[in-house]
Amino acid sequence: MATIADVAKYTGLSSATVSRVINDYPHVSEDKRKLVHDAMKELGYFPNTSARNLRNRKTNVVAVLIPRLTNPFFTLILDGIERVAEANGFQLIICQTKSSKKKEIDFLNLLQTKQVDGVIFTSIENEWEYIQPYTAYGPIILCNEYHHEATVPMVRLDQIQGSYLGTRHLIEKGHKKIAYCMGSTSGLSFDRRLGFFKAIEEAGIDMKSDWIFRDTYTMEDGKRVFQQILQLSDRPTAIFTGGDEVASAMVKEARTHGLHVPRDIAILGFDDQPIASLIEPELTTIYQPGDEIGARAMTVFIECLNGIRERMSQAVIELPLSLVIRDST
Amino acid sequence: MATIADVAKYTGLSSATVSRVINDYPHVSEDKRKLVHDAMKELGYFPNTSARNLRNRKTNVVAVLIPRLTNPFFTLILDGIERVAEANGFQLIICQTKSSKKKEIDFLNLLQTKQVDGVIFTSIENEWEYIQPYTAYGPIILCNEYHHEATVPMVRLDQIQGSYLGTRHLIEKGHKKIAYCMGSTSGLSFDRRLGFFKAIEEAGIDMKSDWIFRDTYTMEDGKRVFQQILQLSDRPTAIFTGGDEVASAMVKEARTHGLHVPRDIAILGFDDQPIASLIEPELTTIYQPGDEIGARAMTVFIECLNGIRERMSQAVIELPLSLVIRDST
């Protein structure tokens, strides 16, 4: 394997000069730069990136972990991250975990081997204790998703308030039987449920365990849950879906079964994705400023990398959600 | 064993020029190229073994370049790539180019610095001559997108047939004034236009330049183009959109303007994304097996990496498209 010495010998330059070119130092003439780069290609010399990155502590590459690319809310977060990354000379690589614990850890190894400067999580699959050790290798920022015990900066949305606003809206529309669709066991899901039950309890409404549906994320989940709801003897009159994809699939499923939305059943979305205003009836939903939390998370990441912000202690930055009333409720 | 210096001496060219030929860089005359190749044969020169050894070093990470994560067709391709990658122990990192030439080259540097084993392109922004030099560093596979001059494996869909089928369908429905929305100047766009005009010419239909719209990719583009169509004095009765996102936004825009789809204007999608069957009326569209070409591309990638398939010569694997008739035409 070619070494720096080989490049020096081939070009007739000193090893010091070759090293200056490789590490992109100033005060090297363009001629010498070109000579070295050509020789590197010729000899098949590749700088040992791991070693170099360890020394320089920067790759200017950030890994963003997201569960599912098909969910437009996450791509909106990515847009915000990317905007700030680009303005500051960072490259993003996107790692899709597909909600797999193993994949999440595999991607964290990119941080351990210094192939990236740090990681932004938009969703977490493993328990926090399995993530924590990786904070030794670079900044880890949680964006959107959060764990109450995580000791890193978290940029998140006020999920308690969001689900409270949506549930209150359904109650004000006269609904007393409301189905609740939930996701995982993360901090986000936990808080969203808190907001839902806060509104339910304030209104003194009964809640049946039959009306709670777990692991609902995708359009397929929406279709499945809607069919389950149709089978219930005591059927809810409104559904809190937790996501516009789930809600959209339910609107279509209602149409298929000849049910009118919202007259026969009201459906509340979450996120305010583009689809929310494309389908008929347009979805009442909770607007989540994904672009904004993405941008904030990347800003916080850069602050941590530059040592302006403490990266290994808990700090919470929380943004508000808002209700968008359209025609599905 | 002969060296580069020997080839340079034999041909009377500089080592740099010889190196450019060996690495297949642009801006070298055909004469010099031939001179070098002849000399290489003559002297029995084989490219540097160290470089080849380095090329064999594996990271088990593959970069997938995609233009826009918000387009579900590309996430479908990714699903196919991922399925085969996972089964073979490869990790994917996803690089969003946002159709930027510069970002595309920045991501290719991950290949040059050996942070990834190779690259799968689902869309290409730069002219092929700027991509070609990177084939020296590992397999580059084109998936979906293609360039007629690219000398790498390409897994693609028969776009000529796809747009021909769709346009024929509109003509059979009695349309004689058909607007055409196109994308970039890639091989894909070129072929899709061939299929469209083949059907138009076979039917002996006139085409006005006013009815051709460029750079239409997103929902925003769909809204913009539909508004432009409404302003035309001689308005088309059908629209070939080239994408379900564009088509969906047009269906919504038609609704906003009190126009009935397909009675007042027929709208043909492309891709068969989930949204195609969620909106009202459901979209007639061209089904593109994104998952399938993704899976094939990853299979081809592994074959190249393992030396079972030649990675630096053109090979085309083409899959068919099909028409899905719903209610928008």
UniProtKB/TrEMBL annotation, chains A, B:
Name of the featured protein: LacI family transcriptional regulator
Any Pfam family the entry gives: LacI
Any GO MF annotation of the entry:
transcription cis-regulatory region binding
Tell me the organism: Guptibacillus hwajinpoensis
Q: Which domain of life is it from?
A: Bacteria
Transmembrane stretches, start-end: none
Among InterPro entries, the record links this protein to: HTH_LacI (IPR000843), Lambda_DNA-bd_dom_sf (IPR010982), Peripla_BP/Lac1_sug-bd_dom (IPR001761), Peripla_BP_I (IPR028082)
